[in-house]
Amino acid sequence: MAIIILLLPLVLPLIDAQTLQWGPCPTPMVQPNFDLNRYIGKWYEIEKLPASFESGKCIEANYAVRPDNTIQVLNKGNESTAEGTAVIQDNREAAKLGVSFTYFTPYGPYWILSTDYTSVAVIYSCTDIMRVFHIDYAWILGRSRILPAETVFHAKELFSRNKIDISGMKATEQRGCDSLI
User: Fold this and answer.
1) Can you give the pTM of this predicted structure?
2) Which of 2, 30, 141, 165 could be joined to 95 by an S-S link, Cβ 3.0–4.6 Å?
3) Domain of 156, in residue numbers
4) Into how many domains does the chain fold?
5) In sequence order, what are the residues at sequence separation of 6 or more whose Cβ sits closer than 8 angstroms to the Cβ of residue 27?
6) 6 located within any domain
7) d(CA 48, CA 170)
8) Is 122 domain-assigned?
9) Can you give the CATH number for the domain in which 54 is found?
10) Where residue 6 falls among pLDDT bands split at 50, 70, 90?
11) C-alpha dihedral (158, 15, 111, 120), degrees to nearest 10
């Protein structure tokens, strides 16, 4: 317990605007038989759990396979652009990607819980801090800037069924974006 108290001042700056939960990360099921080639392309952020590394409106993510079989991740919005690399870490669970946005950080989890490839994707990531608490990240992505309310509702149900607290999830503004990007 003393170690936890000593680590809190170091960790607290990292969790500003994050979703902090007690206990270890949940381990939800991911998309079976995930097909990366059908997933690549442009996705728009519909809703997310707040993350300190991501703000603004008109946020989109573009995925492309590089010649070395890594995946280029290009996230952009009206306030920032970030380029990273994703990799499939285990071909037996291809929907569990690892993503990094710098050469100096390890790959963080980017798990595709569900996608139909043509309209919606449900994404989860979690950072475990000594199995005492964890930081949740969650996104609902769409191939269009707006999804039907029923589609968003079903995506949120998937998080809830997997015991992922999305009570802090916020919609991403996607109106008036075509003139910004």
Assistant:
1) 0.87
2) 30
3) 17-171
4) 1
5) none
6) no
7) 6
8) yes
9) 2.40.128.20
10) very low
11) 50
